[in-house]
Amino acid sequence: MTVENSSPGKILLFGGTTEGRRLAQKLSERGKCVTVCVATQTGADYLKGIAGLKVLTGRMDTDAMVLLMEEGYDLCIDATHPYAVEASSSIRRACGRNGLPYYRLIRRVATRDEVIETVRELVSRYLQDEDQAALRRLRRSCSIPQDRFGSLPLRGRGMHRGQFISDGHSSDDVCCGADGADFPRIRTCVSADDACRMLAEYTESMRVRDSMQSACAGGESSSGTADLRRGILLTCGAKEAAHFAPVVKAAPESVYVRVLPYEDSISRCIDAGFSRDHILTGKGPFTVEENVRAIGEYHIRIIVTKDSGMEGGYPQKLAAAALCGCDVIVISRPAEEGFSEEEILLQARKQNPQRGV
Fold it and tell me: Which CATH number is 10-108+336-355's, of 3.40.50.11030, 3.40.640.10, 3.40.50.1980, 3.40.50.720?
């Protein structure tokens, strides 16, 4: 991909990611005048401590972006979240209307093996020795039945790599621990609407399976302990909440959503049909312990998430699911083209060497 020659000195950066923060800091340190636009106060908080930045907070449509760009920027960098497709489209349109060079900063995509290895390392902390302090603390922090911890997958010996993530089309996409215990299924889909349809099918199959197990066990699960978990935890953001309205309508007591602690996010969820006591708020990325605590407190069986990357808390969600026996539905990251942080910095240095960039 060829980068057009220009001489950026005043840079407009649309942030919202860890990579965006890092790039903004490096550009500022190299003498650039950087204005960073973020949608939420959380994004602004991430930028605290970086000298020389001008930070604008609040969502903007294309017209507002066009007006801002008329202030005379030399370069626009789109460092919004990989799933912020609408925001990226607005930024590209605004740049086209202003003739402003547009560069998309790409978040590195971890390989399957890298994700697996990270999840294995996180899980092994709690499985190498069942008497260790970390596992005792984890048990105390949640309400997962103690007998489930006694039959956890992985046993500290790893998992079969080839069965870790399915394409969402296989019926036998069960990940197994090295000792043969079931590892939570991880199924992928391409959109929130697909995830909603998958949830509807999945929860119906779970209902049928539980009914059969309950009948065979005289009203209890096959393990001998009643498995009362029916919860679904959505961790894919408030903007996606509306897509799951059909599931919320069908099972309002079973579906929970975790979003940022802002009224705009909460309002989106309420509009989608969530009651306030089913809206969990917090600022991620969340640790394994925090995810396990939510799973236990709200009796979660299925987690819906996005592949937010190694720095976005994705491995921690998968590790918590492994520890608690939850299944996971992952909304795949949209395909896109752009530039790495190094490519953008290198091009800036070539374009304006007299300023030490």
Answer: 3.40.50.720
